[in-house]
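Task: complex structure prediction.
Instruction: return C-alpha cells for all chains below.
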Amino acid sequence: MSLLKYESQLREPLVDGNKNYHQVTEDIIAPIEMKPSKLWYVGFYISVALLLFGVYSIYREVTYGIGQWNLNKTIGWGWDITNFVWWVGIGHAGTLISAILLLFRQGWRTGVNRAAEAMTIFAVMCAGQFPIWHMGRVWMAFFVLPYPNTRGPLWLNFNSPLLWDVFAISTYFTVSLLFWYSGLLPDFATVRDRAKTKFRKMMYGVAAFGWTGSTKHWQRFESLSLVLAGLSTPLVLSVHTIVSFDFATSIVPGWHTTIFPPYFVAGAIFSGFAMVQTLLIIVRKVLNLQEYITISHIEKMNKVIVLTGSIVGIAYLTELFIAWYGQNPYELAAFFENRGNIFSPYGWSYYLMMFCNVVSPQLFWSKKLRRNVTVTFFMSIIVNIGMWYERFVIIVTSVYRDFLPSSWSTYYSPSIYEIGFYLGTFGLFFTCFFLFAKYFPVIAVAEIKSVLKTSGANYKMKMSDIEKTDAEKFYIDEVEHAH
Amino acid sequence: MSGIKKFVVGSFDDEAVLFPAVKNVRKAGYKIHDVYTPFPVHGLDHALGLRETSIHTAGFIYAITGTTTALSFMSWVFTKDWPLNIGGKPHFALPAWIPITFELTVLFAAVGMVLTFCYLCQLSPFVKKHHFSSRATDDHFVMVIECTDKTNEEELQSFLKNNGALDVNTQIAESGWWLGRYDREQKLYREELGY
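Output:
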C-alpha cells in the first residue's frame, strides 16, 4: 500500500526546511512556552491603552448620549457604521481561508488558517460594538432579540434588514468560534502533553477538553470540519450580503443598487486578505515562523488581493455606468457630483478610495512585487485604508445631501469620542490578537503534520528522486521493451 | 462496559510502518482498542475496520430543525399572534424571511453538530482521561491493544516489536463511557522518559 500521495514538483513546498513531526510541534509550540519578548509587552500595553481610551469614549457616549458624536440629521450613519462594515468585512478572509479553501482542497490554507480565523473572530467582536453602542440606550439592546415580552408580546420586524443583520452577525460569530475552537482542541492537547509545569498542564488540559487523538475521534473531527466548512461557505457570503441589504433595500440614491451584495462580498474578502497579510507578516517574523508561512503563502494571498481588488474596481465602474445609463437625476447627482466631482466636499475621499483599492493592487501583477514582503506589508495597509474609505464614501457621500437641499449638512467630521471609539476597537482587536499569539498555537499543528509528507520541502526532495528513477524505469519498461 | 483492564501499548513513529502493523495485529486476532495519532491519518479508520461516522446526518437533522423553527415562528408571529401592517405588504412575507431562516438553519446545524461531537467523543473541559502516551499528540502513533484472559502479554509485546513498534509497554486503565475514565493523575512531561 502506498501511503504517500504524490504532489508535483512544480508546486512550491508548503513547509520549508528539514522537518519531521516532532520538529513541527517544537517550532510552533515553543513560543507558547517561553516568556514573551519585550516587543510583545510594548505592543500589548499599547493595545490595552487604546482599549481603555475606547472604553472612556463609550462611557462618554452612554452618559451624555449620541450627541457626543458629530452625527446630524442627514448624516445619521457616519463613522460608526463605516467602522462596523469595515470590521465585518475584515472578518471574511478568515472564513474564506478556513472554509472555502478547505472545500476547494487548497493545501496552503493549513499554514495560515488558524491566525486568519482568530482574526475573523476578533474582527466580528469589534464590528458588533458599533451597532450596539449606536443604539444610544444600550441597556435596551436586548430588545433586538425575539423573546416573549410584556409589551403585547410585540415581536420584531422580521422583514427588516437591520434585524437580519442581528441574526447574521450573531450566527457568524457563533459558527466561526465553534469552527475555530474545534480545530484548536488537538493542538491544545499537544501543548498539554508536553507541559512541564502543573499550571500549564491544568490550563491547557481544560482547554483541550480531554482530547486523546483517538482514530474514531479524528474521523468524526474530519467529518465535522468538512460540514462546518460547508455551512460556513454560504454563511460568510450571506453575512456581507445581508450587511449590504442594510443599504440596498433603502431608497437612498447611491445605496439603492442591486450590485451591492456581490460587490460587498468581494470588497470584504479584499480587505480581509489585506488584514491577514498585515498580521501574518508581523507574526511570522516575531515568532520565527517563516518556514511555515512562506513567501509562497504570501504570494498566493496577494493573488487573491489582486483578483478581488479588480472585482471591486469593476463594481465601481459598473455603478458609474448604471447611474449614467439610468439617467435618474438623483442617482446622477450621487455618483457624478457627490463622489465623482473631486471638488465637491467629499470628492477627495472617492478618489482616495479609487487609488487605494483599484489602482495600487495592480502592482501585484508583477511576480517580483507579489513575493516582496515589504511591498506586501505596505500594500496591505493601503488596501485597509482604501476599504475603510470605500465604506465611508458609500455611507457619507450618499446621505450628506438628501432630497431637501435646505437640510444639506455642513461638512461632517467626527468628534474625538467617535475617533476614540474606533481606536478602542483597534485596542480590543490587538489585545485579543496579542493574547492569541502568546497563548495559542498560531498555526494548526495537526494540519501541518497531515500535509508534511506530501508538501514538506525535505519530503518533496525525496519524492523527486523517486520520480526520476521511476521515470527512467518507466522509460525502460514501456518504451524500450516496446521496440 | 466499564472496568479496569490491561492494555498493551505500542508506539510507532511512521504511518508507513503503522499500516502494515495494524493489518498484522488484526490478522493475528488481537483486539485493537484504539490507535492514537497526532493528526488525522487518512485510511486508518478503514484499516481498523471502523464504520463511517454519521455525524453529518445529525447535522442535517439539526439544520432542518432550524429551518422549521425559524419559518414556523415567523409565520405564527406575523399571521396569527401580532400581524403588523408594513407598508401594506402581505403578512405572510416569505421572501423577506429567507435570510433569518437561512441563518437559523446554519446556527442550529453548527451548534448541534459541535455538541454532538463533544458528546460522542467525550470532550468536556474538566474530563480526565487515561492518556496512553503523551507523544500521541506529538510524533507517535500509539496502538493500544486490549488484553483478554487468553492474551499472552509478552508474546504480544514482541509481536508488536517485530512489526516495527519502537516502544512497547503494558498499562492498566479504566475504560468506559464518560465517567469511567477519571482514574489517574495526569503526569507531567519528562524529557528523560520521553512521555
